[in-house]
């Protein structure tokens, strides 16, 4: 079965430049057995997710598409209002797979945004301060349960621990087949190529112990568009980001490389 796991589609950015990242590979996409959108489908999801799904579903039937959010999917939105995202996906027949397993052929895919623990380098307090000053997440994302206040670093850490707890529990369940972990944020600092003191921790956590303990076949991630692939023990860490239009000269070639068989 042929699978595409794609993060960082940023459909709204591609639409704004009148470029279609799937142009020229439409038959290839139409022939997929499943497409997993691993976060950052678009900003402003209440308005723009429907446009992204309309474009994608011209190529792939909805029952073959699953989605979970990245950080950008909460821009001009609330981090704790995922029921609304689930409703949007369901209205198009698309599976919403935050903290969920997908069984495709002989394999299972464990999906979650993951976020980060902000612990790399100088530690959570300093990293949180730097991230809050320099990342749009902390200006563009709100917390409904906090009176629609702005997102704080502590909210990200709370989300990370919640998602990681779900993930480790799922990894610990016996499964007779290959296990793929799919997250938006990265599970290992060494995949990052554009290092920045204080900001690295907003893109990756150090989950080497989790990888070594559960040994999934692969861990597919995005968020850092330029991250590299890496092998840790028996596990392939693979960057499945597409990225912004000005970063990708040939999106079709990039997407082709991300399709694999299970």
Fold and architecture overview:
With 262 residues, the protein is of the alpha/beta class. The chain has a single domain, classed as Metallo-dependent phosphatases (Purple Acid Phosphatase, chain A, domain 2). 31% of the residues lie in helices and 21% in strands. It has nine helices and 14 strands. The strands form three sheets. Strands 6-7-10-11-13-12 form a six-stranded mixed sheet. The protein has a five-stranded mixed sheet with strand order 5-3-2-1-14. Helix 3 packs parallel to helix 4. The protein is globular. The termini are close together. The relative contact order is 0.18. The model has no long low-confidence stretch (mean pLDDT 97).
Feature tags:
single chain; alpha/beta; Purple Acid Phosphatase, chain A, domain 2; 262 residues; six-stranded mixed beta sheet; 31% helix; five-stranded mixed beta sheet
Short synopsis of the structure:
By secondary structure, this protein is α/β, with parallel strands linked by helices. 31% of the residues lie in helices and 21% in strands.
> In sequence order, what are the helices and strands, one letter per element?
EHHEHEEHEEEHHEEHEHEEEHE
Question: Level of helix content?
Answer: 25-40%
Output the strand order for the largest sheet. Answer: 6-7-10-11-13-12
Query: Any idea what the shape is?
Result: globular
Distance between the termini: 5 Å
Structure classification: alpha/beta
> Approximately what portion of the residues adopt beta-strand conformation?
15-25%
Oligomer: single chain
CATH superfamily: Metallo-dependent phosphatases
Q: What would you report as the Rg, rounded to the nearest angstrom? A: 17 Å
Please report the first level of CATH classification, the CATH class: Alpha Beta
CATH topology: Purple Acid Phosphatase, chain A, domain 2
């Amino acid at each position: 079965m042929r699978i595409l796991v794609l993060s960082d589609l940023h459909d709204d950015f591609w639409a704004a430049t009148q470029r279609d990242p799937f142009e020229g590979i439409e038959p290839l996409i139409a022939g997929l057995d499943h497409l997993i959108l691993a976060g950052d489908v678009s900003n402003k999801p209440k308005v723009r997710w429907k446009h992204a799904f309309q474009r994608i579903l011209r190529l792939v039937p909805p029952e073959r598409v699953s989605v979970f959010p990245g950080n950008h999917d909460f821009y001009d939105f609330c981090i704790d209002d995922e029921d609304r995202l689930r409703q949007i996906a369901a209205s198009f027949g698309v599976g919403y797979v935050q903290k969920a397993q997908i069984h495709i052929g002989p394999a299972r895919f464990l999906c979650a945004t993951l976020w980060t623990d902000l612990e790399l380098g100088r530690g959570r307090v300093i990293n949180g301060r730097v991230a809050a000053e320099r990342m749009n997440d902390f200006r563009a994302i709100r917390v409904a349960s906090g009176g629609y206040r702005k997102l704080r670093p502590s909210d990200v850490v709370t989300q990370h621990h919640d998602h990681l707890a779900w993930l480790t529990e799922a990894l610990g369940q016996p499964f007779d087949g290959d296990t793929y972990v799919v997250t938006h944020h990265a599970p290992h600092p060494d995949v990052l190529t554009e290092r920045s003191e204080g900001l690295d921790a907003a893109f990756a956590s150090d989950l080497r112990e989790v990888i070594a303990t559960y040994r999934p076949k692969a861990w597919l991630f995005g968020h850092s568009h330029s991250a590299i692939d890496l092998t840790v023990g028996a596990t392939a860490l693979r960057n499945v980001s597409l990225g912004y239009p000005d970063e990708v000269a040939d999106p079709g070639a990039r997407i082709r490389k991300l399709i694999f068989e299970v």
